[in-house]
Amino acid sequence: MRCLRCGKEAAPNSAYCASCGKKASPNQKSPEKPERKDQDLYDEDGVLTFDPKKENYHEREDEDESNEKYFSERDRAYHRQMEEKRLKRVIMVDPKNPGKDIYVPDSLIASIIFTILCCQPLGLVAVYYAIQCNRYIAMGDKMNALHASKRARLWIIITIVVSIALMFLAGEIGKNKEKEAQPSPVQQETVAENQEAEAPETPETPAEPEEGTVMPEDEGIWTVDLDRAKKAAQEKGLKLMILFTGSDWCHWCKLLEGEIFSQEAFQKEAVDIVLPVKLDFPSKVKFPEAVRKKYEAEMKRYGIRGFPTVVLADPDGSAFAVCGYQQGGEQAYLEMLKALLADKKALEAKVAELKDGGADAARELFNVLEEYSAKFSHTPCVKEGLKKYYDICREKDPEISQTLEREEKIKERLAGIAEQHQIGEGYDPTKATKEIADQAAADYESLINEFSIEGEKKQEILQKAAIAYLIVRDEEKAEEYLDKAVEAAPDTDFAKMIQARKRAKEEEQENNNNQ
């Protein structure tokens, strides 16, 4: 028989083991040497059943070498127990991969932290499973401890994800509330208007002029501030008469002032029908930079090409007529102003009559506007000033809308050509070259062909090409484009002027040849 302590053979019926001295039991039977396999070390749940003390771990000399796999697993189990004691962590065999050891993590601390910092209801579920894991470890049920640990980690992840989603959602809701709290542009304008209305009126104190400059001042019937004049015209129900002048250097400006505007009869009657505004561009007197830039901006807005120019406009600044010097004295000039004001009044009456009609009324109104603006075709600011009436036609008739859109595209292209080549009115002529003039003229002709432009509009575009060549002093090409412009619309005042100038030049040349 074998000793129960050391496992060595003992003499039959002996009271003690000859090797270790353990007392033999009277009913002791010689146990058979078990067949040692891997499953001997673990139960069906993967829990370690090997005990090094009972198995005499260090006494392996008498064992059969054929059981080496058994001893390898036994070594692994022993070291697993030592690691558990050293690391104070539970280690078990991976159920899915028996050749691999895995830890059973304790997630209690992590679950408590994320419960405090994140979503508490979901974090409490993670705490519950972490406590279950520790309870199973204490019971020695490593398999259920592993399952509880996995569930605890899963709920920790769910807690984090849900918390991030809730924070993002709260941020979006906060942004929407801020946007809703902000007043709309209309509300902002209303508040600003109310504040302006409630604010006490304080007299404006004019800024001190720069050194060497003089501030323009109101003189007689003339106002020198257009913004102030617009408010006054609105209050009095008058139209604006804006004079662009060069008072100390322009010959025709001096004639207009001396023969008409300085006359007492004109001043007495004019203030009842218009509100006069003077924007002066003198050469001997220097205005402050801010005033000069403001005047230049108004000059560019109305497309003023020469002095003197008189623009009649509504109180909001929308031009409806343009005129200049006219012979005949102050009475003739007053009659002309009254006629222009009467035409505008008739136009407003026609707009009031047709604005509520259908497409037919819109086409009739469009024709009226075209006929009216044709009288001032040389001044685009008039058609621009009538835009509010054209918009009524645009809304009611698609064909009119297409026509106006076409005109707007042509206008944009013309401005783009001038901006691209930096040549024409408003640009430095010293930087222009023959090559630039050629490119600009080619672009103008391309625009005419692209939109099939005819008549006065074609004449206007060809004039720009001629001006480009005049700037670079190429008179031959300029004459060529002026002839094309005359052919495009021979009945216009411009064409008649060019033809008269050409005849005068031919007569002068003929006289020189005869002499």
Keywords:
alpha+beta; two-stranded antiparallel sheet; 19 helices
User: What structural class do the secondary elements suggest?
Assistant: alpha+beta
Task: Sketch the topology as an H/E string, one letter per element.
Answer: HHEEHHHHHEHHEHEEHHHHHHHHH
Cα separation of the termini: 162 Å
Give unreliable regions as ranges.
Answer: 30-41, 50-71, 197-206
Number of helices: 19
In total, the number of strands is 6
Query: From the alpha-carbon coordinates, what is the Rg to the nearest angstrom?
Result: 52 Å
Q: How would a crystallographer describe the biggest sheet?
A: 4 strands, mixed
Strand content: 5-15%
Write up this protein.
The protein is an alpha+beta fold. Helix content is 59%, strand content 6%. It has 19 helices and six strands. The protein has a four-stranded mixed β-sheet with strand order 4-3-5-6. A hairpin with a 5-residue loop joins strand 5 and strand 6 (319-323). The longest helix is centred in the first third of the chain and has 40 residues, at 142-181. It is elongated. Mean pLDDT is 77; it is low at 30-41, 50-71 and 197-206.
Q: What is the topological layout?
A:
Layout: H1 52-55, H2 68-87, E1 90-93, E2 101-104, H3 108-117, H4 120-139, H5 142-181, H6 185-198, H7 226-236, E3 239-245, H8 251-261, H9 264-270, E4 274-280, H10 289-301, E5 309-313, E6 319-323, H11 329-354, H12 359-374, H13 380-385, H14 387-396, H15 398-421, H16 434-451, H17 455-471, H18 475-488, H19 493-514
Parallel strand pairs: 3-4
Antiparallel strand pairs: 1-2, 3-5, 5-6
Helix pairs in contact: 3-4, 3-5, 4-5, 9-11, 11-12, 12-14, 14-15, 15-16, 16-17, 17-18, 18-19
